[in-house]
Design goal:
This protein has a single domain, classed as Rossmann fold, CATH 3.40.50.2020. Helices cover 23% and strands 23% of the residues. β2, α2 and β3 form a beta-alpha-beta unit. The longest helix is centred in the first third of the chain and has 19 residues. The radius of gyration is 17 Å and the shape is globular. The chain starts with 19 loop residues before the first strand and ends in a 10-residue tail after the last strand. Bound molecules: 1-O-pyrophosphono-5-O-phosphono-alpha-D-ribofuranose and uracil (URA). Uracil binds next to β7. GO terms for molecular function: glycosyltransferase activity. Pfam families: Pribosyltran. This is Bifunctional protein PyrR.
Amino acid sequence: MTRADMTVPAGHPIDPDGRTVLSAPEISRCLRRIAHEILEHNKGATDLVLLGIPSRGVELASRLAAMIAEVEECGPIPVGDLDITMHRDDLRRQPTRAPMRTVIPAGGIDGKVVVLVDDVLYSGRTIRAALDALADLGRPRAVRLAVLVDRGHRELPIRADHVGKNLPTSHQEKVQVRLAGFDGGEDIVRIASGATVLGDPA
Ligand SMILES: O=P(O)(O)OC[C@H]1O[C@H](OP(=O)(O)OP(=O)(O)O)[C@H](O)[C@@H]1O
Ligand SMILES: O=c1cc[nH]c(=O)[nH]1
């Protein structure tokens, strides 16, 4: 039987090139597992603050916060955005990027358990910048990291506490995360470096 012959359930687009890493339903399942892991590790939702790293980490943090509140049957989990632009170590090498917004929940981050949320973990330099940005804002009791995809190739001693999918990749590839409400479609694909997959994945 070829891939094209297979019956594909609704929500699982046929992927003749085998590039799809996670479909939309699989992304949801990964996030739900991460929400449970965060709760288990933190022994509940007390003192949790989720901070998404723009761009797509913001959407993921907000989804995780909603899932944690639903699972724990508690009030809203504080969630915010952490812009890292001015803390990047490649500011002089990269084309200029406009800073995005940083939004810290009303209760602040002092003494809290901050979970940084991003879509892809690669060199680790974004997370290093995030830790730098965080230090300007307060002193959390602990900082943890949740990512949807860990594609390896770390250049710094940084690891994620919660990972949706560990994906061994080559440097020549790029992992592209698309989130509904942000990109139109929703999936994660691996593509040749420099290429961009446009449009709805379905
Ligand atoms: O571990 P690293 O090597 O730092 O790579 C991971 C970062 O790269 C991507 O962000 P990008 O800078 O492409 O911006 P985007 O989130 O706006 O796509 C991704 O969203 C991560 O934040
Ligand atoms: O493959 C990669 C590397 C960094 N950031 C991404 O979003 N994808």
